[in-house]
């Protein structure tokens, strides 16, 4: 009924069998978490009204609020917060709060709603993703010196098992470079400039993607223009996302896949080459546009 968006049927069934609202399935996922994944606030409202626990977590510590941050819906985030969903619980590693999950995917609006309640874990990548200049200054001095809190609570690095394993280090360069990619995926141009001025390497790949490829994948055109202006290589080929997804991809491949017209336009203006082929599929960005049926982008690339 959740998959079918059958609101009346779900309400009727939960009304007849109230204990179902507390049932857990594979990996400990409950109905509220599953409903959140559908991005349909109405389903979540029904479950909450029938007693669903907004603090319930699966075996990875993942709550419905984590899922709401993952899908990036501010209204759903607000609904769960108002129902009592906890904001400071970690999932998939230390520091994996719902705020961090939202920032991981560049969901600025959802992240702002969460940050208004709690900034946990308050490290450098969170400051960068939110574009909080004051917090950036506290964590990273103009001379590049990091405070102890800047690199703390960074064990969270993937929202699901499709991404490979990784362990963050205490290397100051890694901490600053990672924060740059979080600023880029959230379109925080001012934070990008601050981080680069204080030592971030514009083409660094800390974990499955440079700042530019993350900006492209999330369609952040302003960040793309800023990074290109600061010297990012728009034709750099590298890894992105899961092991079976991005090998030898360029930022342009990823912008094309997401259908991000403005991002594609910004990359082309910065000199991106549509003919470069990735390593997994031996296909150019133009080929990706054909595969993903991006008609407007296909026209742009052919013109280029």
Structure characterization notes:
With 304 residues, the chain is an all-alpha fold. It contains 17 helices and 2 strands. It has a two-stranded antiparallel sheet. Helix 2 runs parallel beside helix 4. The chain is globular and about 60 Å long. The model has no long low-confidence stretch (mean pLDDT 96). Keywords: ANK repeat, Repeat. It holds the Pfam family Ank_2. It comes from Amycolatopsis oliviviridis. This is Ankryin.
Provide a quick synopsis of the model.
It contains 17 helices and two strands.
Strand and helix layout:
Layout: H1 7-16, H2 31-37, H3 41-49, H4 64-71, H5 74-82, H6 98-104, H7 108-115, H8 124-130, H9 133-139, H10 172-185, H11 189-197, H12 211-217, H13 221-229, E1 238-240, E2 246-249, H14 251-257, H15 261-269, H16 285-291, H17 295-303
Helix pairs in contact: 1-3, 2-3, 2-4, 4-5, 4-6, 5-7, 6-7, 8-10, 10-11, 10-12, 12-13, 12-14, 13-15, 14-15, 14-16, 15-17, 16-17
What is the number of strand segments? 2
- What is the helix/strand order? HHHHHHHHHHHHHEEHHHH
Indicate the overall shape: globular
Q: Spatial order of the strands in the main sheet?
A: 1-2
Task: Please give the count of helices.
Answer: 17
Average the pLDDT over all residues and give the rounded result. 96
Instruction: Specify the helix fraction band.
Output: 40-55%
- Report the sheet with the most strands, covering strand number, pairing sense and barrel closure: 2 strands, antiparallel
Q: Report the end-to-end length measured between terminal Cα atoms.
A: 47 Å
- Oligomer description: single chain
Low-confidence stretches: none
Radius of gyration: 20 Å
Structural class label? mainly alpha
Strand-residue proportion: under 5%
InterPro entries: Ankyrin_rpt, Ankyrin_rpt-contain_sf
Protein name: Ankryin
Keywords: ANK repeat, Repeat
Organism: Amycolatopsis oliviviridis
């Amino acid at each position: 009924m959740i998959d079918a968006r059958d609101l009346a049927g779900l309400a009727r069934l939960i009304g007849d069998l109230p204990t179902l609202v507390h049932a857990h399935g594979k990996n400990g996922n409950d109905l509220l978490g599953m409903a959140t994944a559908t991005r349909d606030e109405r389903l979540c409202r029904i479950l909450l009204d029938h007693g669903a626990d907004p603090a319930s977590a699966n075996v990875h510590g993942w709550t419905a609020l984590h899922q709401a941050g993952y899908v990036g819906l501010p209204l759903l985030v607000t609904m769960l917060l108002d129902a009592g969903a906890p904001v400071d619980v970690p999932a998939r590693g230390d520091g994996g709060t719902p705020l961090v999950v939202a920032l991981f995917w560049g969901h600025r609006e959802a992240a702002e709603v969460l940050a208004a309640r709690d900034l946990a874990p308050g490290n450098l990548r969170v400051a960068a993703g939110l574009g909080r200049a004051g917090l950036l200054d506290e964590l990273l001095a103009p001379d590049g010196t990091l405070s102890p809190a800047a690199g703390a609570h960074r064990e969270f690095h993937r929202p699901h098992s499709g991404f490979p394993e990784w362990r963050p280090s205490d290397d100051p360069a890694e901490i600053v470079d990672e924060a740059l990619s979080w600023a880029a995926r959230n379109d925080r141009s001012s934070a990008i400039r601050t981080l680069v001025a204080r030592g971030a390497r514009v083409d660094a790949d800390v974990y499955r993607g440079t700042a530019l490829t993350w900006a492209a994948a999330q369609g952040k055109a302003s960040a793309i223009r800023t990074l290109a202006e600061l010297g990012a290589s728009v034709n750099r080929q590298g890894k992105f996302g899961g092991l079976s997804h991005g090998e030898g991809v360029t930022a342009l491949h990823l912008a094309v896949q997401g259908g991000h017209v403005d991002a594609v336009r910004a990359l082309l203006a910065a000199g991106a080459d549509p003919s470069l082929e990735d390593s997994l599929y031996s296909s150019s960005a133009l080929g990706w546009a054909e595969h993903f049926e991006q008609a407007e982008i296909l026209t742009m690339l052919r013109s280029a």
